[in-house]
Amino acid sequence: MQAAGTSGTGMEENGVIEPLPDEEFGREVTSDYDPSDTETTFGSLTSSVTGHVWEYGRRYHAFRYGRYPLPNDDEEYKRESLRHAMLKELLKGKLYLAPIGDNPQKIIDLGTGFGEWAMEMGELFTGAKVTGVDLSPIQPLWVPSNVEFIVDDIEDEWVHDQDYDFAHFRFVNTVLKNNELVLHNILQNLRPGGWVEIQDVYPRISSDDNTLPEDYPPAKFYSLLQGVLKDQYGFDLKVLESLPDRLQRLGYVNVQRKVFHMPLGEWPKDRHLRMLGGCFQEVFLDFVAAMAARPLVEAGFDKADIEELVVGVKNAVGNRRIHAYVPIHFVWAQKPPA
Question: What family does this belong to (predicted)?
Answer without folding.
Answer: Belongs to the methyltransferase superfamily. LaeA methyltransferase family.
